[in-house]
């Protein structure tokens, strides 16, 4: 951690580099190839249509090509009353035969009635038959046997498809729940039942339908207003650019106005507390202490006491004194921080292309997320159909055991449990591949985290290289190399893939542990073991802190890699000690930067948000005719506000990287050089003036 010796040949980012952390680079490439192989294997075994389309009792999904279900895309439940709620229907299997049909039934009918009249009303029989098992056409079979073997449903109900499944067609008439204008129906087993039984069977469907109609309205709003949303985001982009360019003139003014504003407000607070304290003098009861009156739920009681106002005044005086002392002792550091912010604005002015680099990071991360999501879906659907015995009798000992539909009819089960069937349960499997699907999903998540962190690291290193080449240019802008961003990107990829992958790997491991801890916490939510919950909470907190610390170290290590081209560990160590030697400057710069950039984000998002609000609520007379008619005006409004904040965040993240890079370069500059002709400073004249160095080299532009 000793200050670095002067190197007379050092002229900014080293160009004669060598590859760093080669072993990690090789491992990274092998892991990526393995990840591609995992994707291919999952793609071969998986079939996302199993998620999209429902599966019938024979393990074939509705709409499956080259099967009887080719044109039958909707799932029909023989007895929906056995399904207590749609959650059971969507996630698990309902204990009733399921069949794929081309369209849902549109009338009430029972098997008993249809069978009794099949001779003189064959059309009704033919209509009902399409909801029976394929190939069943035996109206002479006794009703008891048909219902036992579940050849046909005992009843059909007017239904409509929802999530590719037939659900009763509910409607409310004068506050009474009906299906096809009827409140009762025959259940096909000799009973007349109320429609509310169906409602319980398909509980919550109306809520889901309402949610779907809201979803459609929101989609319509987006379809109408996307053009204006894009204009809003473009305005946010221009405002962000303007804010960054103007920071070189306004950084100091903004900061000092805010600081003196805070001092003024606290000063007024002190005066007000004193006035209240003095005003209560002599009023009966005001000299009581807080201890005397004890705990009161009405806070106003305390405001009647002189002691309360005295306490407020002392607290505010303490805060005021601390702020003023900090300003007095840290004034030079604050001036350096503001000068660095202005320098950052100037650097971005010379290398404008850097502002659009976040788009590259965004695209890389979007590719990672897409690949991860697709692989996860294919892995989740890569099982073979598993069949289980489904018995009508509750006491059947074979119920829920796995079975083979090919040989099921030759086994004892049908004799011991009349009416039992071998129906599809879920997708799984016993092979080696299927047993390790959970491990594959974990590996998928881990490599995804590694790649995302690598994409972010690549962006940080590229930007750091570009801004370092600006700082170490002796005459600015004449000595700034051509295409600084592209050459920095090339250097990062060619020489430092291993180092960036190493940094990303450490972060990915910590993040994976955090994901596992969150999963465990979610699983243990129901348990009453407070010690376990406390331990998990501590672990989550520790790993959160560790992740924050690692992100800070990595970010500065990547800056050092961009400047010197050394390996990850050396760069991280040098960056850490350099920052520790300038710890107060780091703290001040960090807080000043955070404050100004937060102010910028609020200004951009707030400004565009107010403008969008006035526009979408037709408060701007010039554009009143242009405003689209919306179901909910908050849809485009929220999109514009959140989008503007993200656009501003994208631009300002580049600026924050710029300031961090310039700061590390500035610290290096101070340790390497002394401002003499032999060892001139590379910093700008404004930074030089703040340091009060007398030996000003004959440069300065």
Automatic annotation (TrEMBL):
Mainly resides where? membrane
Q: Which reaction does it catalyse?
A: choline(out) + n H(+)(in) = choline(in) + n H(+)(out)
Q: Where in the cell is the protein located?
A: Cell membrane
Q: Where are the transmembrane segments?
A: 21-44, 226-246, 253-271, 309-330, 350-374, 447-474, 495-517, 595-616, 637-657
Q: How does it sit in the membrane?
A: Multi-pass membrane protein
Which keywords does UniProt give here?
A: Antiport, Cell membrane, Glycoprotein, Membrane, Transmembrane, Transmembrane helix, Transport
Q: Does the keyword Cell cycle apply?
A: no
Q: Which InterPro entries match?
A: Choline_transptr-like (IPR007603)
For this record, the Gene Ontology CC terms, alphabetical, are: plasma membrane
Give the GO molecular function terms. Answer: antiporter activity
Tell me the function of this protein.
Choline/H+ antiporter. Choline transporter.
Family of this protein: Belongs to the CTL (choline transporter-like) family.
Name the record gives this protein: Choline transporter-like protein
